[in-house]
Design brief:
single chain, mainly alpha, 14 helices
Length: about 350
């Protein structure tokens, strides 16, 4: 409930109806003073997102310690006591990915290993380097070990002899130095690629030209692009996971597709929360250098699998044998789905770098 003062006037500012009590019986708007402080605005913001007026913590408690209970309560129509599952999914996923991308950075392109194009100007610059600078340079090229002048000369000559293949070195593609060259080969009729193969080849040529021989930089940009698709992968997987459950429990007529979707949403929320705890423990282990805390994260991973089994058993209320069988069928289907989505978004990420 809001802590802003209630209006003395009894007309609803939203629809104009007469208000009996604190809320309008027609539109539901609270009859409070329209002017509010910054503190009240912030309180309203969190209330609107999470219903911190009790619903959030009640929902959290039952979600964590009573697997399968919340989706069953929702299916039975007992919903006012708990936070809406879609709203809680959006809130917890937002917090999870905010923390995740803040704590973990996937940037292979920032490797300390330096890449050079050895031309005459670069050669002269390196040859005239002071010993200290030369040692620092060769350390970056030789996994932390400095090279002698003779060793560096051999290294430089070997790099010059290497063909510039670019990021991709697949048969036929690496030989194309430009789109124009590939188009000319297509025009001769010697290569008859379809639309998909042409699109892939064009993209490979563009990436090779952009990154040249800097595979680490490409991998870093690819991983960053792919990791930012994680929220989309999980969101898109939701309806498919619900469909798997629908097929597994197709003979249970009282469970509609939406019932399976609500179950899936609650399970995803549990995973978000437990992974947040795991990330906190992981960072705490790094700060305190307590290696034994790594075992806790291992137990948390096992807990997710155990929670899923208990949730299936409590929600669908089938015998233990049937539940175990469907549990493993579900894990197989889910793994196949995630691998498929990873491949799809991997291709998307390649076209986005």
């Amino acid at each position: 409930m809001s802590h802003v003062h209630q209006r003395k006037e009894k007309n609803c500012l939203n629809c104009g109806a007469e208000v009996i009590g604190r809320y309008c019986h027609l539109c539901g708007q609270e009859n409070i003073e329209p002017k509010e402080s910054v503190a009240h605005f912030v309180v309203h913001f969190f209330n609107d997102i999470t219903h911190f007026d009790g619903k959030f913590f009640v929902t959290l408690k039952d979600l964590l310690f009573r697997p399968g209970y919340l989706p069953r309560e929702y299916m039975n129509g007992r919903r006012m006591r708990y936070l809406n599952p879609v709203r809680m999914y959006l809130f917890t996923s937002f917090i999870f990915f905010l923390v995740f991308f803040s704590l973990y950075h996937f940037d292979v392109s920032e490797s300390k290993r330096i890449k050079f194009t050895f031309d005459s100007e670069t050669d002269q610059m390196i040859d005239s380097m002071p010993v200290k600078d030369f040692n620092n340079l060769t350390k970056s090229l030789n996994h932390g070990k400095p090279m002698s002048r003779a060793e560096f000369k051999n290294y430089r000559d070997s790099v010059k002899r290497l063909p510039v293949l670019g990021v991709f070195d697949s048969k036929g593609v690496a030989n194309y130095k430009s789109r124009a060259q590939y188009d000319s080969v297509l025009a001769t009729g010697k290569v008859k690629d379809g639309w998909l193969m042409r699109s892939i080849t064009y993209r490979e040529i563009d990436i090779n030209q952009r990154y040249e021989n800097q595979k680490e930089k490409f991998v870093g940009d690819f991983i960053k692009s792919f990791m930012h698709h994680f929220p989309q992968i999980l969101f898109i997987s939701l309806p498919f996971v619900a469909l798997f459950l629908k097929l597994l429990y197709i003979r249970r007529k009282k469970f509609y597709y939406v019932s399976h979707a609500i179950f899936t949403i609650h399970f995803y929320i549990f995973v978000f929360i437990t992974m947040l705890i795991a990330m906190f423990i992981s960072k705490l282990r790094d700060w305190l250098v307590w290696e034994w805390m790594g075992y806790i994260n291992g137990l948390i991973s096992l807990l997710i699998f155990f929670y899923l089994y208990k949730a299936l058993r409590n929600f669908y209320q089938q015998r233990r044998g049937k539940t175990i069988l469907k549990y493993f069928l579900f894990l197989f289907s889910f793994s196949f789905l995630i691998i498929f989505l990873f491949i799809v978004f991997g291709f998307i990420s390649v076209f986005q770098v």
